Amino acid sequence: MQRFTCCLLAGLLGGLPCLPAGAQAQPAGPWPTQQWESSAPEEQGMDSRALAALVDFGAANEMDSLVVTRHGKLVAEAYYAPFRAGLRHRINSATKGVVAALTGIAIEQGRLKGTDQPVMELFADRAIANLDERKKAMTVQHLLDMTSGLDWTEPLSDAPPRSLIELERSANWVQYVLDRPMAQAPGTGFNYNSGGPHLLTAILARQTGMDVQDFAARHLFKPLGISDIRWRHDPQGIATGGLGLYLQTRDMAKLGYLYLRGGEWEGAQVVPRRWVERVYQARVPMNLSAAADWRYGDLWWTFPLRKAYMAVGYNRQIILVMPQLGLVAAMTGRKNYPFGALFDLMAQAAKSDQPLPPNPEAAALLARRIADVADEKPSAAAAAPALAERISGKTYRLAPNELGIKELTLHLSGQPSYDIVSYAARGSSETKTTTRPLGMDGRFSRLDPAAGDLVVSKASWTGPDTLSVTERWLEEAGTGNYVLQFTGSKVAIRYTDGLGRGGSLTGEASN
């Protein structure tokens, strides 16, 4: 779930420039439309040894990928096994930053009147519950700033995002958000709400007459050379505004670089410059802690003391821009780690505005660390018990369950694998069979790129009758953990996902 700019007014927040520093320093480019141009870190004033420490930080904090650029040049890139280069990644709430850019584009094109337009007027054809004067006063800007006033529970912590879970389960996402009662008057204060950006994508679809993914592809992604896109849609076919966009990490960095350059790309103003500057001027206090002077605006996070701003997704899907350093980074992962440590490492790596002397030793260290994290190291594997031979090839029929799995078969000899027979959809009698390799050597099974299945798995015996299996959905950054306990002809399965949610299954051998 989702847990979750840098030109602030100079006198208010410490003297940041009124335009991104990179846009001032490099008016002629470079432009990574076709591909990022690589550079030795020291040529861009970056310390390779500090970048190696950043790569190590990623390994310790469950990053899947890391791209660091400075002055428009790629200076470091790491992919953490089993994730690999060339894969998209679900960027979770960093999707909101893209929705913000599209909102600015639509306003510039005259498809939206502006941010002061009342939201209810844009849904005048709908019957809306709990409609009062406060809800009628809610504007597009309130949705952009997370100050809608709607009653919504989605804490920026590991606590359950109750409203977001209900949204995902609802038959009509837009109606669910519109029908929410008001907790306070709009503009009163910050309250994180992924439903608001979903209303924005619904508004964009209405006002442009286009699927938001198509609108984004034409007016935002194509100019930047971004083509490998996937975007989830709600039951009515509306692109999910609060989450659900999938991008490659290099393309995430392009979006950050677009904002660093004031919305300009190859001489064209893709996002209006004044719209980008609004992000730098975010003024809504997030009030997450007394010590954190974090601001929010236009669906971006601002860190005034760090002179940084970010589009942030749960489990640290991040587009980071540090304008005074001319630095843009993008990262994906599976763990919420402290922002402060990330900022420190970035600042330590950006040693100078001028090129540094070549440092072959540090460069070799950085190359080794990038290679190390790309190569998964096997963990110690316990010997298979006698039970393994008896259960191999048996098909276990499972009692009805919320995962929709009907049958499970383990193949534990030769090349280990497993077959899952599952229902094609909730309530359907149609089934499908999926076969996946199973890593029994302490490593995730290797991907077959031709198969198109981006799920990898590994297993280990944790007792004489107990097999523990971990699945990774690479594009989703999701993890599933299964503990299978065998007793006679029966199997009991306990499962949890990366959010700690779980349940149990039972089954019996049919052969």
TrEMBL record:
State one Pfam family annotation.
Beta-lactamase
- Database matches in Gene3D superfamilies: DD-peptidase/beta-lactamase superfamily
What transmembrane ranges does the database entry give? none
Keywords assigned by UniProt? Signal
For the Beta-lactamase-related domain, which residue ranges apply? 65-340
The signal peptide stretch is 1-23
Q: Has UniProt tagged this entry with the keyword Phosphoprotein?
A: no
The keyword Nucleotide-binding is annotated on this UniProt entry: no
Q: What is this protein called?
A: Beta-lactamase family protein
- Species classification: Bacteria, Pseudomonadati, Pseudomonadota, Betaproteobacteria, Burkholderiales
